[in-house]
Amino acid sequence: MSRNTIKDNELSEEVQEKMNESVEKKVEETQNFLRSIFSTNKLSSYLVAKNLPFAAFIALLGLVYISNRHLAERTVRSIDRLGRDVKELSWDYKSLSAELMKLTTQTEIAKRADTLGLRERTEPPIKLEVVKEQ
């Protein structure tokens, strides 16, 4: 396997000059653009007026983004609060269900009926038969 080595590929002078020229050209274009924006001549006011709807649109998008973020955070807080409420109601349901199951056992019903003067039957029920007359 070969080892990684650093290759020294030196650029020719012509290529270096072309690169320097292109970089200088880009810098000059950027400087000219910035000068035209900040100068007080008619062209700069024309550029500002021309791009004003776009700037207003960008500002509107920013406001929509901010309001959407607030709405999402409010919704997340609401979901969290409702989740806690559901947990609490689930605990209440389970405790009430267990209490109801305890109260509906035969011994608990017999205790409550005894306070009313009622007693549990000890003998089985009898069957009544109706004789039809002919």
Structure characterization notes:
- With 134 residues, the protein is mainly alpha-helical.
- It has one domain (15-115).
- Helix content is 73%, strand content 0%.
- It has three helices and no strands.
- The longest helix has 62 residues, at 42-103.
- The termini are far apart.
- The chain crosses the membrane at residues 43-66.
- InterPro entries: FtsL-like.
- Keywords: Membrane, Transmembrane, Transmembrane helix.
- It comes from Sphingobacterium deserti.
- This is Cell division protein FtsL.
Q: The biggest beta sheet, please? A: none
What is the number of helical segments per DSSP (H or I, 4+ residues)?
3
Please report the distance between the alpha carbons of the first and last residues.
Answer: 117 Å
Classify the beta-strand content into a percent band.
Answer: under 5%
Task: Count the E strands.
Answer: 0
